[in-house]
Amino acid sequence: MPSPRGPAIIGSVSTLSDSSARPRILRRLTEGTINRIAAGEVVERPASAVKELVENALDAGAARIDVTIEGGGRDLILVVDDGVGMTAADLEMAVDRHATSKLPDDDLTQISTLGFRGEALPSIGAVARLALTSRPRDSAEGWCMRVEAGAKFAPVPAAAAPGTRVEVRDLFFATPARLKFLKTDRAEAQAVADVVRRLAMAHPAVAFSLSEGGRTVFRASAMGDLLHDDPAAARLVRLAAILGSDFADNALSVYAERGALVLSGFAGVPTYNRGNAQQQFLFVNGRPVKDKLLVGAVRGAYADFLARDRHPSVALFLDIAPEDVDVNVHPAKTEVRFRDSGAVRGMIVGALRQALTAAGHRAATTIADQALAAFRVDGGPGSAPAPALPFRSGAGPIYSFGQRTGPVPAGLADYATQSQSPLGVPAPITTALAADQAQPGTLDPRDLPLGAARSQLHLTYVIAETREGLVIVDQHAAHERLVYERMKGALAAGGVRRQILLIPEVVDLDDGAAETLAARAPELESLGLVLERFGPGAVVVRETPALLGDSDIRSLVRDLADELAEVEQTTLLAERLGEICGTMACHGSVRAGRRLSLPEMDALLREMEATPHSGQCNHGRPTYVTLHKGDIERLFGRR
After folding, report:
1. How far apart are CA 4 and CA 12, in angstroms?
2. Which residues contact 63 (CB under 8 A, 6 or more apart)?
3. Is the pTM of this model over 0.70?
4. What digits encode the pLDDT tens for the residues 460-469?
5. CA 204 → CA 220, 253, 349, distances in Å?
6. What domains does the chain contain, in order, with CATH numbers?
7. What is the DSSP string of 368-413?
8. 630 exposed, middle or buried (CB, 10 Å; 0-12, 13-18, 19+)?
9. In angstroms, rounded to a whole number, what is the distance separating the alpha carbons of residues 300 and 332?
């Protein structure tokens, strides 16, 4: 019986409606259309063209690459390098699709170059006006070849320095529809700058420059000699030139090696964080990538130190055998696939955590700068900041309120002197000073990293004195980290010690929350919290972690119920123990508003010095701020 749909016939007539009936004829696309389609995959925007051209220059062995753009790259892209250069025959073949010098034996498992598809130049030539000028290093003559909207012109002799000059004008003029999807010139220029900077990070041996409209946007010198003597130092110098000195000041060295897998680079201390992931730079075999596996590994390594809405700053370089990574996943080559993704992720997480542990209680240097900025006088919105304390030689005393300065009115100084109370030394400070002086030859607490406790402000902040300045400690944030680290250590050692409540605590919850807690009771018991169902919509707590002391059990249980509600049923609580410990530590730490004795303050400082990661709380906030004596003196005009 024939099919009701009828036989499938190539070239048959559609019968959807008489008005739309027309033959379906198979035909081959023209070469120009094919190239324009390919250009849509390879050249999405000006930054994509710059990336392909700079990568070609790097593969050509260039020691210097200069990039110039106009109109965000849509009017002009100029890339000049001093690489090996090309002959006239090379130029003609370079603008043909799938022509490349980077796969000598057609082995896609041994890709050691950045580009290998042979699509960039013909794709750019299909949608723009392309001019290639090149001269081999061992040749005395140069050649120039033009391509416009896919139309190729024969090479002609041209004056040229050794290397290659690629000029792209009127990008997408042959495909006007693509122009509608480009962003503003400023946004496109920023995307180009990001591409050049990322490639410059990965190749410190090469000098880079980027100019726009006659203005130098970015310049980085080659790190040749330093790279040979100290590769890590050269890498950090290049990163500082791109990311700024703040990154270099707050960067931790990262290095790990496992067979043919090598991880190197730098990671910022947790308190040097950002509101987005824009300052995370990841490279595989010198190729900038944006890979979910690598980003997730970085996120996991910092999970103990940052809130969910904060992101670390890192620049990590992974070297792996070519056969163990697939770089041919996406036309833009920004995504990769690893043969053993578990080993890669584990190596990144382990190396980052080791670096963070070695940092001890170190916090970001930018925190002190922010604190000092808060002290400086501001004359109001739109006005320039006033000098801290102006002085004029021989002009008599002057005063400063906002922007006004002038001589002190007659009699005001005498009145102020009579109104001031004599300075008294509080008893705790007197005791501390006496203790320092009573033990000659012993270690002065002021020589320790966090100094000697002197006082407590607003029942929240501990003030300590060091030889070089002073330290302000947030007592709650600091103790929260200490309790958290103790709980993790106890958990790793076999379980958290528990304390039995004389009177069990009944906590009222909704039925769903109570059921969730009861289902997780065995796992919570390993954390020192013993609870069970107590009728509908309630649980009873019988034991709590000894480390928490006298904490608010009701608030703790409710927060844990909210925390566990986000855990999928198929996910083991063990995978979230860090966050659960953090919630418990927050409830068990010294609260703001509690008065501390001087010995308690000193004990807090000493334990912070001995505890890894104590420079930030579990949410990534700093636990202390250091103000150097020189900075304080500048605030008062002494420097």
Report:
1. 16
2. 82, 205, 206, 207, 222
3. no
4. 899 999 998 9
5. 9, 17, 25
6. 31-217 (3.30.565.10), 223-358 (3.30.230.10), 432-639 (3.30.1370.100)
7. HHHHHHHHS---STTSPPPPSS---TTS--EEEETTEEEEPPTTHH
8. exposed
9. 27
